[in-house]
Amino acid sequence: QVTVISSPELLELILSHLPIRDLLCSVPLVSKTWQATTTTPYLQRILFFEPDPSSDPSTLIQNPLLAEIFSPFFTRLEDPHAYHWPGRTASIWEMPWLKKLDAFRRAGASWRRMLVTQPPVRTSALKHVTRYRYGSTTRQATLSGLSLRMGFLFDLILPLTQDGVWFWIDWHGAGGEHGHTCDFTIHLRKSLGCVVDLRPVKRDTRFDSEERQIVEIPFDPPFPKARGLARR
After folding, report:
1. Are the CB atoms for 167 and 123 separated by under 8 Å?
2. Alpha carbon of 231 to those of 111, 157, 168: distances in Å?
3. How far apart are CA 158 and CA 170, in angstroms?
4. DSSP code per residue over 22-79
5. pLDDT tens digits, 92-132
6. Contacts with 144 (C-beta within 8 Å, 6 or more apart), sequence order
7. Which of these, 65, 56, 127, lies nearest to 97 by C-alpha position?
8. What number of CA atoms fall less than 13 Å from residue 160's CA on the CB side?
9. What is the pLDDT of residues 74-93, one digit of tens each?
10. Distance CA 208, CA 149 (A)
11. CB-based burial label for 216 (10 Å; 0-12, 13-18, 19+)
C-alpha cells in the first residue's frame, strides 16, 4: 500500500531527515513532486546550496557530503609540524569520485555549487611556506568577499599542489581558534633542496572541470612568474 502525502510542508519535513546524499541523488528520481520539493529554500539550505541565516557565525559546520568525497580538504591535522600533510596531488587521485571522472568534470556538476560550510566562509587566509636546506620563505594572502563553494575552493588549491606542494586546511569559526580573524586558513608547504628550480610548471589538466575558474592569488610577496603557480 502506497501512502500519498498531500501536504508539501509535511513532505518537506520528512525529506529533511534524510542523509544529504539521498536527498540530493535519490529523492529527485522518485517523482516530479519530490524533485520540486528538494528545491524549496529550506531543503536547499540543508543541501548546502543556499546559506542558512539561522546558523551560528562563530561555528563553521562542514558539508558532510563534501567532507566524505573531498577528504583531503577536510581532514583534521592533529600535528601541524608533521612531515606529511593530507593534501597533495596523489591524495586527490585517491578520492573515490575518480570512478566517475567524466561526471565529476561535467558542466553543471552539483558539487561545484555546494557551500563547503554553514554559514558560508567569507574570508580565507593562505599561508605558503617554502623550506630550503638553510632556511625558509613565507608568502601570505587574504581572500575576502567569499561565499565559498567547493568549485572555487577546488580550483583555488589544485594548481598549487601541482608543484610538489602539500596542503591542509585549518577550519575554525570567525574570531575563534588560534586568534585568526579569517574563517579558515589554507596552509601550503613545499620543501626544496639547495638549488631552487624556477622552471615553468606544466599544469595538470586531468581534473579540470568544464566550469573551472581562473583564480588569481594576491600572495605577498608574489611568486616568481616562472613558477606558474597561480596560472590557470
Report:
1. no
2. 23, 12, 21
3. 17
4. HHHHTGGGT-HHHHHHTTSHHHHHHTTSS--TTS-TTSPEE-HHHHHHTHHHH---S-
5. 888 877 778 888 888 888 999 999 999 999 999 999 988 87
6. 122, 123, 124
7. 65
8. 26
9. 988 877 777 778 888 788 88
10. 16
11. exposed
**What are the residues whose beta carbons fall under 8 Å from the beta carbon of 109, sequence distance 6 or more?**
103, 209, 211
Residue type (1 letter), 92: I
CA angle 148/110/94 to nearest 5° reads 85
- 232 touches 159 (CB < 8 A): yes
End-to-end distance of the chain based on CA atoms, in angstroms?
56
The answer to whether 44 and 114 have CB atoms below 8 angstroms apart is no
Q: Helix, strand or coil for residue 180?
A: coil
Beta bridge partners of 126: 141, 186
Residue 118 and residue 66: Cα distance in Å, rounded? Answer: 12
DSSP per position, 183-227: SEEEEEEEE--SS---PPPPPP-TT--TT--------BSPPPGGG
Q: Which three three-digit cell numbers place residue 46?
A: 540543508
- Per-residue pLDDT, 67: 93
How far is Cα 102 from Cα 98, in angstroms, rounded to an integer? 9
- pTM (2 decimals)? 0.83
